[in-house]
TrEMBL record, chain A:
PANTHER family: GLUCOSIDASE 2 SUBUNIT BETA (PTHR12630:SF22), N-LINKED OLIGOSACCHARIDE PROCESSING (PTHR12630). InterPro entries: EF_Hand_1_Ca_BS, EF_hand_dom, Gtb1-like, LDL_receptor-like_sf, LDrepeatLR_classA_rpt, Man6P_isomerase_rcpt-bd_dom_sf, MRH_dom, PRKCSH. This is Glucosidase 2 subunit beta. GO terms for molecular function: calcium ion binding. Residues 314-414 form the MRH domain. The keyword Phosphoprotein does not apply. GO terms for biological process: liver development; N-glycan processing. Residues 174-202 have a biased composition (Basic and acidic residues). PROSITE patterns: EF_HAND_1, EF_HAND_2, MRH. Keywords: Disulfide bond, Endoplasmic reticulum, Signal. GO terms for cellular component: glucosidase II complex. It comes from Gasterosteus aculeatus aculeatus.
UniProtKB/TrEMBL annotation, chain B:
Keywords: Endoplasmic reticulum, Glycoprotein, Glycosidase, Golgi apparatus, Hydrolase, Signal. Pathway: Glycan metabolism; N-glycan metabolism. Residues 76-297 form the Glycoside hydrolase family 31 N-terminal domain. It comes from Gasterosteus aculeatus aculeatus (three-spined stickleback). This is Neutral alpha-glucosidase AB. GO terms for cellular component: glucosidase II complex; Golgi apparatus. Its main location: endoplasmic reticulum. Residues 1-18 form the signal peptide. The lineage of its organism: Eukaryota, Metazoa, Chordata, Craniata, Vertebrata. InterPro entries: Gal_mutarotase_sf_dom, GH, Glyco_hydro_31_C, Glyco_hydro_31_N_dom, Glyco_hydro_31_TIM, Glyco_hydro_b. One of its GO terms (molecular function) is Glc2Man9GlcNAc2 oligosaccharide glucosidase activity. Residues 684-772 form the Glycosyl hydrolase family 31 C-terminal domain. The keyword Glycoprotein applies.
Amino acid sequence: MHFHMIIVAVFWFGFVDSRKIRGISSSYKRFFRERKSFLCIDGSKIIPFEQVNDDYCDCEDGSDEPGTSACPQGRFYCTNLGFRPHYIPSSRVNDGICDCCDASDEYNSHAHCQNACWNLGQRERAYVEGQMRTLDEGLQLKQQLIEEGVLLWREKQAQLRELQQVAEDLQTKLEERRSRKQEADRLKEQTPRPPEAGDGRLFRGQNSTVTGTFKLLDSNKDGSITVDEVQAKVALVHDEERVLSEDEAVIKDTHGAPGVGEDPPLKVADREWEATNLKKVEEAYDTVNMEISDLREKLAIDYGPDWEFLFLNSQCYKLKVYEYTYTLCPFNQVTQQSTAGTEVSLGRWGMWEGPPKNQYGRMVYENGEPCWQGGSRSTTVTLTCGTETALRSVKEPSKCQYIMDFQTPVACQPVLKQRGIHSEL
Amino acid sequence: MAPVLVLWLAMSLSGTWAVDKGNFKTCDQSAFCKRQRALKPGDSPYRALLETMELTNTRLTLQLINDNNKVRLLLELYRLQGNMTRVKINELKPLKPRFEVPDVLITEPSTEPLSLLSQDENGVVLSLGTESQRVIISARPFRLDIMEGPEVLMSLNSRGLLAFEHLRMRKDTSLLIHILAQWMISIFKEEEEKVDGMWEETFKSHSDSKPNGPSAISLDFSLPGVEHVYGIPEHADTLRLKTTDNGDPYRLYNLDVFQYELYNPMALYGAVPVMLAHKAQRTTGIFWLNAAETWVDISSNTAGKVCSSETPQTDVRWISESGIIDVFIMLGPTPKDVFSQYASLTGTQSFPPLAAVGYHQCRWNYNDQEDVASVDAGFDEHDIPYDYIWLDIEHTDGKRYFTWDSHKFASPKEMLQALEDKKRKMVAIVDPHIKVDSNYKIHNEIRNKGFYIKNKDGGDYEGWCWPGSAGYPDFTRPDMRAWWASMFAYDQYEGTAENLYTWNDMNEPSVFNGPEVTMHKDAVHGAWEHRDVHNLYGLYVQMATAEGQIQRSGGVERPFVLTRAFFAGSQRYGAVWTGDNAAEWDHLKVSIPMCLSLGLVGISFCGADVGGFFKSPSTELLVRWYQTGAYQPFFRAHAHLDTPRREPWLFGPENTALIRDVVRQRYTLLPYWYQQFYHAYRTGEPIMRPLWVEYPQDPATFALDDEFLIGKDLLVHPVTEEGARGVTAYLPGKDQVWFDVHTFQKHNGAQSLYIPVTMSSIPVFQRGGSIIPRKMRVRRSSSCMTHDPYTLYVALNLQRTAEGELYIDDGHTFNYEKKEFIHRRLSFAKNMLSSVNLATDAEFSTGSWIERIVILGASKPSKVTLKTADGQESQLEFDFDASMSVLTLRKPGVNAGLDWNVMLQ
């Protein structure tokens, strides 16, 4: 019993002491030690100590009223045992709204504040732990993605080299075809005789060459070459180098042909065939070049120091928000599709626009569909750390300006395990 | 908002931001205006038939005859209590009744005795009772002159412009004998219509069927000695009205004008047919009680002349499309007498909840609950107070008012509770156009009850507005209004709570596909045409909505309803704003004369969209607009859907700080603002007032509209010029001094003062001789400040005296009507400041106390003694700043509701 009384007494004194200088942190206690007078912390004025926390602002800097709402510039320290201590503006002291989780700010108001610090602390700890787990997991995943990114980067580089090779070959062939066509045209002018039948060797040879290349590229046999087809074939070429060399051989073979015969007269049909083939080679050449510049463009994008964002390049992520489905294809574009089906561009890849400390924290997509009052739609994507890659939220705070929250492990940044939760007594 | 859907095309084609004037009529395009304006001043065809005169104690009646067509009119003349004369003119025997405006006058005005002074065959002289006032009725031609002593105060029909288009049968219906004749006449009639538009009128693709034919009325008023006339809002024009000889008359016809143009007489969203005329010796007013389309011509014999030997005179002529002539002549003689006279007719400004005097954050639109929560949190994060966050039309389920979008606002009660937890409130929009949708309860009920306005063929009138096809409830019907009011009950309007209030927009009414973007005039309200009641519609919408808010709380809580359309009397129901302005410097400037003009005709609770509704303001303009708006009665930021976000913290820390500072200034002054609202509610005096109202004999003040007074003690000259380095403010009053409220520097009155400004400057001066209470502890919202102590700013005049008031009540209920308030007079004289009870029959207790007393223009005392009601005396500490002569008394600590005095020795 006696023992209990002592404990109560100890508690009581502690209480009185802290009440005297309500609203300060322990590091500020030294300013409030003097018992006769108080020097405003900015040194501007000395006031009797009774005027500290007497609900009248005497110091310009508000330092004499840490525990009341009297000073416009003042601040109140929430000790928040069990949670995180923090300052609130003095204007929130006794305003009828619970701001400190320990209820210390509403010591003279009608508000019925409960001490919620322990619960908040628990929740905060659980949250931080969760965040830490996410971070750890995310960082591991990020490492994998970095490794994959490096491989992918190399692969793409190789792809580029292959494509460049194909382009070179096609160019050679193109030159040859051009000179052939010129030759044919010249011949036609000189000897306007009808071409003789049965002289199809050259034609066949040439046929086998151009159509061979063409067929090689025109994998779906629809008579035209698409970018996809070239890409697929280039991959194929990359896998089976031999095919390319055979093809090359064929091209070389035909190259020697003009020297063999003696300007054999060409038929009109042959000439047309020649022109068509030239066109096809030109097309193939253009296609491959386009593909090259496309790939170059893609490779010119900043995918982060370890190419960790590269894997996002060919992906798209969707999210339905109210009546719209939003699609983010990183480094490409953002679109919005209404339930009615109309699709609107919300911007094409623009740039990284993160703050200096987190350069890869934000992407901007610009020049989407125009807005009726001028300007065009744009989207800002904020990248946050998560264990999977997904679009988390989309907002349109102002018309035509979209904000997306995009979660991915590659956005995880190793940080010092921080934020000590004030849990000691 | 404005009818974007309909008009955006026109705008984008023209490529400019100005109004498309082609959508709105000029006087020439409005048949009756053209007809009436074609009449030129001259001898009136009207003659008073003196033998028909009947004079009772309170009423004179007399027949007038038009000698051209022999149609007789009945003139009624009343002397009203409070120095007013009412003149009514109607047809003696109209074919059918003509519309007389109901529900605008608060009661049938009390009359005073009239007596006959003399009579002969030329006329009659009546005594108007007080002050040797007489009215002379001349018989041939008919005219009225109101005299005081030898002075003519006002003359009616002195220019012979009285016109009264009597109701008549169509000519072709009375002559049906011969088919040929009928055919001939119909040809003739068509010709007549083309010239006159008497029986039919078309404007653009819209046809007005005019089944009652011509019915316009007109009357002229001459104002001897007057060079300044004011009022007849709403126009985006200067405070002092201009002469209209070289252009269109001022038009009063409630219209939704898309991107309105400044400095012209075009009609806008609201109409108050009240004009004030002022000269140094006297202020008078004309209240033309007519709700139809009205045009007002103003001419002056001295306009444009630098020096004239003529006695100045302003002539005014009112023209309305239908109804009767019912005019109240308010004879002053002071500006405040006119306010009180007008208030006795149409009532005073409703006393709003205190929170409504705080800052309002609006945008079209806050997208969803999360958006609302994050904006709310933004204010806390940046330590900027606000009281109301607003939701525009997108919060509804497909523009069905009284509903919520089920995804974006899935749990409105939770949202409202979250705001309530911070002692904040919300406003949601409820427009009067109702989506035609058989799955919509509100529509079904209105249709089933037959409450919709009808078209000329008897079906429900349908127009195009935000929801698409929409019906318009007939708010002129009392049963409709009662039903509408009942829809605000918490069990009817789901998802609502005590802290949700209402905004009535588009209540002109706006009809996107109607003539001039409003309703067809031949639409039918029971016995009357829309033509007759048009300008009343918006008033009724706000009336019914405010009533709904009162009812939902069982008559306990004060309502807060904002309206865009208004009429005389709208002041009784809430606040108005100046509609869809634009983010331009000129729009900021014009917000001052627009609100001043409204204040003069009773509507004190006025504001303009801070920042400008259309377009995006520069940061400088936005900051300047906050600084101006913080000193106007209704303080709300608003922005168009298509503009970038502009919450106060989006323009860098410096600008956030500037905006924070001025919003906080508003909050420190809330006690003063609130007291002004109480005063406006009691007296009808404007809160935001032109300088001439307080300095009626100083001609230098008569046309000022770049500065204004709040009450009588604060003078504000906002900075409204881009890149301004300084402003020149006129400080009135020969024996007056003014104190800069920021620096406490003293300036003499009756001078133009150049004030250098920076971005943080908002030139505000406190009048020497006044005491202004403030609350210096600015908190998250006004409700959080309820129990806070007061600081009294005592500004001494040259006689070293000062007076002020302190009004305190609960801030939100009608209990002030039951005398639950504190109203004290604070006065400083002979070195003693004292607080005495101004309302001894009232009772209220407050926890607020007097924290500090700041005396401007003081000298240093040797001691300061506080004496409380129980006789106890104590010494107060004080601080004296000799450089500015500012004496600050530390912590008197007395309760603000008690008697006390402070003696300086």
